[in-house]
Amino acid sequence: MSMNDTPSSERLHIGFFGRRNAGKSSLVNAVTGQETALVSAVKGTTTDPVSKSMELLPLGPVVIIDTPGFDDEGSLGKQRVRRTRQVLNRTDLAVLVADGVEGLTDSDRELIGLFQEKEIPFIIAMNKEDLLTKKEEQELAEKEKDLPIHFVSALQKTGIQELKEKIGQMSAKSTHTERLVGDLLQAGDLVLLVIPIDKAAPKGRLILPQQQTIRDILDAGCSAVCVRESELADLMDRPGLNPALVITDSQVFGKVSKIVPEDIPLTSFSILMARYKGFLQTAVPGAAAVSRLKDGDRVLVSEGCTHHRQCGDIGTVKIPAWLKKCTGAKLQLEFTSGKGFPDDLSPYKMIIHCGGCMLNGREMQYRMKCAMDQGIPFTNYGTFIAYIHGILRRSIGIFPDLVKELDSLTAEEAM
C-alpha cells in the first residue's frame, strides 16, 4: 500500500482556520504546492469545508482541510461557522491563518480558545508578511509572545517550508502510536481470523479492519490464518493447530464462541478497533445499558461510513433484530451515518456505534465524550454483540483490567 492508498482515518488531519480573506485558501495552496482550494478576493469564497488526502513532505500521508471563514455572516454564514466547528472534532493539528496587517481579532482569539478547549495542538500562521516591516513583525511577535506564531506570505511563498517543518514537529507529538493487536502477541504466534464472506462483504477484497489487523499481525512477526465461519470447525479439528488468539467478525460471534475452545482467547475485530480508537473502556460498561431498555426508549445506531445498505445490513437490520430479541421492548431506533452525528444526544437511552474504522481517533473520541458528558451509555457493535450473546467477559479476556472492571460492574448490579 502506497502512502496515497493510506486510509483517511489513518492520516493526520490538518485543519486551516481563520477569518474570511485572511488567506486560508492561498496558504493551503502554498503549503500543498497544488491548487487544492479555490482562491478569490471575494469574501466567503470557501463555503464548505474542503478536504484533500495527499502526501505532504516531511509529514507523509495527511488530510488537508480548508474551512469557511469563521467570521461569516447571515443565516448561511451561521451554517458555515457550524460546519467549521464540526471540522474541529476531527482535526489533529490546527493552523490558524491570521492577517498579519490587522493582527489577531476577536474571531481569531475565539478560535484559539476552541483549540485549547478541545486540546488541539495549533500554530498561528501570520499571513501577509510581505506587507509588514521588520519592526512591525517584531512588535507583533512581542505582543503575542505567549502564542506559537510563525510569519508567512502565501503570495510570495515565504516562510512556507519553515511552517511545514513546524507542523511536522507538532505532528511527531500527535502521532497515533497504539497497535490494533500486535502488542498482545509474541513473535511466532499463530492468529486465526474468522471472516464471513456474505452479501455485505466487498467483492474481491476485505474490509479495512481485517486488512489492518492482518498487517499488524505480520508486523509483530506472527502468522495469520484466515477462514470463513463455515470452515472453522474443520480447521479447529486439525492436529497441531494451536492459535494464540482467535479474532472474529462480530456478526458470527455467537457461532464462533461455541466452536473455539474456552482455553483459546477470543475477541473481535470491532472490539480491537474500539481499543485502537480509544473508547473500549467506555464501550464495555455502555453495553450493559441494553438490559435497562424499556418500551418507548430511543436508541441511536450510528456508523462512521456511508456504505450502500444491503439486505441483512448489520446496523439497520441485524442490530434492531438482536435488540428486539434481547429486550422484548418496543424501541424507537434512529440511524445516522458518515458525519451526521447529532450534537444533542439527550433523547437517547443508549448509543450503539460502529467500530469507527473510517473515522480518525479524534472524531471517535469526540463522539464518545459527547455521550459521556450527556450521561448517555455509549458502546460499539462488537461489544454490544458480545454482551447479548453472554460472551463479553470472554471477548475482553485479553484485557485483564477491563475484565476486573466488568466484574465490578456486574457485582454492583447484582446488589
Structural account:
With 415 residues, the protein is α/β, with parallel strands linked by helices. Mean pLDDT is 87; it is low at 38-46. The strands form three sheets. A six-stranded mixed β-sheet has the order 2-3-1-4-5-6, with helices on both faces. It has a four-stranded parallel β-sheet with strand order 8-7-9-10, sandwiched between helices. The protein has a four-stranded parallel β-sheet with strand order 12-11-13-14. The protein is built from 15 helices and 14 strands. It is elongated.
Q: What do we call the CATH homologous superfamily of the largest domain?
A: P-loop containing nucleotide triphosphate hydrolases
Give a quick account of the main beta sheet: strands, pairing sense, barrel closure. 6 strands, mixed
Q: Indicate the overall shape.
A: elongated
Average pLDDT for all residues: 87
Taken in chain order, the helices and strands follow as EHEEHEHEHEHEHEHEHEHHEHEEHEHHH
CATH classification, class level of the largest domain: Alpha Beta
* Strand order across the largest sheet: 2-3-1-4-5-6
Total beta strands? 14
The helicity comes to 25-40%
Count of separate DSSP helical elements: 15
CATH architecture of the largest domain: 3-Layer(aba) Sandwich
Which percent range describes the beta-strand content? 15-25%
Low-confidence parts, pLDDT < 50 over ≥5 residues? Answer: 38-46
CATH topology of the largest domain: Rossmann fold
Count of structural domains: 3
Distance between termini?
52 Å
Using only C-alpha atoms, the radius of gyration works out to 24 Å
Judged by helices, strands and strand pairing, the structural class is alpha/beta
